[in-house]
Structures are given as C-alpha cells and as structure tokens.
Amino acid sequence: MTTVLIDTDPGIDDALALLLAWGSPGVEVEAITTVAGNVAVERGTTNVFRLLALRRPQPPPTVAVGAAGPLARPLQTAARYHGEDGLGDLDDWPPVILAPASQGAAALIAETTRRLGERLTLVALGPLTNLALALAAGGAALAGIGRIVVMGGAVDVPGNVTPAAEFNMHVDPEAAARVFSADLPIDLVPLDATRQATLARADLEAALAKTPGPLASRIAAFTRRAFRLDGGTMYLHDPLAVAAAADPTLVEWEEARLEIGADGATRRAAGASNCRVARRVDRARFLATFLERLCPGSS
Ligand code: BDR
Ligand code: CA
Q: What letter would DSSP give residue 273?
C-alpha cells in the first residue's frame, strides 16, 4: 500500500490525477493540500471539495488550504487553459460546503511526515510553495519522508511557459530552489516524461462509455475544454505523477543533479545527484491503468 499526501492546484489534469489516486487499489490518499497555481487557492480548494462530493472516496482525506501565492512574486495562473474556475467553467456543479482542516497545508505536510515518516509519499502536482513553507517552518519538516514525487520541470525538452521553463517551476522558482536544495528523496516527473503521456479524447470516451453515470458524464464535461484547446488530445501531466508514485516501474528513472534557474528552468548541473528524473514512460501500461481506474463502475 502506498500512502500519499497530494499537494495540488486543481486544474483539469490535477482532477484526473485525484480520481486516478482514488481509483487505485494500492493507494491510500491520506491528505490533500491545495496551493495557488492553475487558479487561486480558493478556487482550487473548491474544486477539491467538488471532486470529493462527486467521487466520495472512503475514508475521506483530510484537506488543508495552502499558500495563496508564490514565495516572492505575484501569482501567474493557467486559467486560460483550465478555465477561470480551474475545471473547464461548467455552470452546473452542485454547490459544495468547504470543510478544510483548521491547520494550513504546510503544517499538515509537516505533521503527516512526522507521523508516517518513510511510509509517506508526497505527490506535488502544483508549484512547490507549500513544501518550501513546510521546510521554512522547521528545518527537519520533511526529514525521514519516504518519497516526494514532483510533477514539474523540463530537463532536456523545451518548457511550456518559456523556452526553458515548465509551469509549476515557473510559477514559484524560489520555492522549487529551496526544495531541490534540501537533500530530499525527490522523483521528478518532468515534461520530458509527461509529453509521452497523451490521451486521445476518443479513448477517454470509449472508456467512460463502459461505466456510464454521473461521474463519467462529469469527467467528459470538465475535460472538454482541454481537448478543444489541445486539438483532441491532452497531456496527462499530473496523472502520470500519481501513477509513478503508485508504481515506479511505469517509467525509467535517471539520477541527476538539477538546479532551478531564476525563471524556473530545471538545469542539469555538475555534482552529486539531488533527484531521480523520469525518462521513458511505458505509455501503453500507463494509459491502460489510467483508463481502468479513473471511473469505476460503482460510482
Ligand atoms: C503542470 O502545469 C499545470 O497547468 C498542470 O496542472 C500540471 O501540473 C504541467 O506543466
Ligand atoms: Ca497541477
């Protein structure tokens, strides 16, 4: 069993990643922390509660609200891609009651790490602000953690925001720099890997048709915007990170030393390794697993 805390900024692909985690028999989602990124943190938190109400995972995870913006610069969102509300701007989500924990994301990350130690895998699907704040609050906040799987960066491929930088790293490079210099067991899932994880709209529709119902209809609806903008396919950036957290053999890993540039570029550097980087993806196995677990029949 892999016990995970998911730090996220939902986000269409973040939503798919949460659904994948909840549908994965070997994964227990202990907690979810939200962070400003694709949308403002309030919107991302609302989206977590929308998805919880829709999917009703048991037991329900603890949810904590995180940073409202990057450590040292204004927030740059990706609302153009994900929609103003982060989930494709559908106008018929049922209203939800937000019930986050009283402690904030950084405190929950530190507390969960202390409690579970090496049994905990932290999966970071947005800017690394909450992780950096956890480190800032207490030097050893993440010491002893089992694994930190980070979706972000563009190592040997072009970025998706600037020629060299990927969105999550670009939004808060100061946070990323702190996390990468903290001597942590980081497994990075960068664009080099996630650009192999493409999903065709027809394949998603065929899978959803096997388990029709409210969950299938809602997934089809909130992904529509991404497929339209990406020409009928979308990148499963965040779902690949969740899948690699649950089953590291889905990708090939390379030990590397990376440093974070001022714009969020993830640059190779000389010296001892500070992370493993996901390289080649077993796309067929990943996609089959993703489509099988996204929308189980009983929901
Ligand atoms: C990352 O940026 C966000 O828009 C996605 O949710 C993903 O985490 C991809 O660059
Ligand atoms: Ca994300």
A: -
Q: Which residues are 65's β-sheet partners?
A: 34
In this structure, which ligand is nearest to the CA of 236? Answer: 1
Task: Give the Cα separation of 169 and 214 in Å (integer).
Answer: 35
Task: Tell me, yes or no, if 237 is annotated catalytic.
Answer: yes
Predicted model pTM: 0.98
CATH of the domain at 207: 3.90.245.10
According to DSSP, the residues that pair with 150 across neighbouring strands are: 124, 188
Number of folded domains in the chain?
A: 1
Residue 174 in tokens: 């100061």
In degrees and rounded to multiples of 5, residue 123 shows phi and psi of: -115, 115
**Ligand 1 neighbours (beta carbon < 6 A):** 11, 13-14, 38, 78, 125-126, 151, 160, 166-168, 237-238
78 CA distance to ligand 1 centroid (A)?
8
Least confident of 81-85, 138-142, 155-159, 231-235: 138-142
Which domain does 148 fall in, by range? 2-294
